[in-house]
Amino acid sequence: MQTDARMYRRYAKARAKKSPLARDMLIAFVMGGLICVLAQWIKNGFLSAGLTEEAAGCTVSVILIGAAVFLTALGVFDRIARRTGAGTLVPITGFANAVASSAIDARSEGFVMGVGAKIFQIAGPVISYGLAAGVIYGLVYWLLSLL
After folding, report:
1. Looking at the domain assignment, is residue 61 inside a domain?
2. I want to staple 71 with a disulfide (CB 3.0 to 4.6 A). Which of 1, 22, 49, 76 is the partner?
3. pTM of this prediction?
4. In whole angstroms, how far apart are CA 5 and each of 1, 8, 17, 18, 96?
5. Is 3 within the bounds of a domain?
6. pLDDT tens string 43-61
7. Domain that residue 67 falls in
């Protein structure tokens, strides 16, 4: 049995498509950079229009989330992601795509048991880990302030 598994791994490795790793990393880096440059450009526009730093940052976040959801609904985000890889998964756009994709896939199951359940299937762990990290950070901060 062990010989068969080793032979299969060798067979699969010989026939697997080779990934152009350097090219893929460069494309992902450039795409992620372009998204960040676009976000900074939009933020600078809001800052020059008189918004505060915090308000401009929040507004840009909402715009990036909205754009990712809109492009996901049109089926464009997935095509871009296939070509650019992890570059489109700059955290906020990638998370918005993941939530929107699961909601779109589950719409035939209804709004509550389909869309609502699938959205929280993706968002739930992120929210839970975020809250847990916040509590741990708060405790560490509080303990360090006692010193």
Report:
1. yes
2. 76
3. 0.71
4. 6, 5, 20, 21, 40
5. no
6. 999 999 999 999 999 999 9
7. 20-146
